[in-house]
Design a protein that fits this description.
This protein has about 120 residues and is mostly beta strands. About 0% of the residues lie in helices and about 50% in strands. Strands 2, 4, 5, 6, 9, 10 and 11 form a 7-stranded mixed β-sheet that branches. The model has no long low-confidence stretch (mean pLDDT about 95).
Length: about 120
């Protein structure tokens, strides 16, 4: 059974960089044809895809967040990390990491495994 767990600060100040880590257990993030993504859900809104890192290390980002988003991985620790720069209160959301078996192009698709999510609040 694959399990994902998000970790990182729950409170970030405006203009700072939000950094979250997803630790994956029970399956390698380099397994062929699996993709690892970050998605978020602001209060009262739909799930929003932020970006993806593929099994081979290629990255893909939502056009609306591309200029502020970076996803990287540590294969030795079986972790992947999200960095979102220049945050504002509009970035307040529950952030999830997910693993899926096909590439997403415009938004979140079928999720095979997802973490429980972590609340991030942007406030001074």
């Amino acid at each position: 059974q694959v399990q994902l767990r998000e970790s990182g600060p729950g409170l970030v100040k405006p203009s700072q960089t939000l950094s979250l880590t997803c630790t994956v257990a029970g399956g390698s993030i380099t397994s062929n044809y699996y993709y690892c993504s970050w998605v978020r859900q602001p209060p009262g809104e739909a799930l929003e895809w932020m970006g993806t890192i593929s099994y081979s290390g290629n990255t893909y980002y939502s056009p609306s967040l591309k200029s502020r988003t970076s996803i990287s991985r540590d294969t030795a620790k079986n972790q992947f990390t999200l960095q979102l720069s220049s945050v504002t209160p509009e970035d307040t959301a529950v952030y999830f990491c997910a693993r899926h078996g096909s590439r997403w192009y415009n938004g979140p698709g079928k999720i095979d495994y997802r973490g429980q999510g972590t609340q991030v609040t942007v406030s001074s």
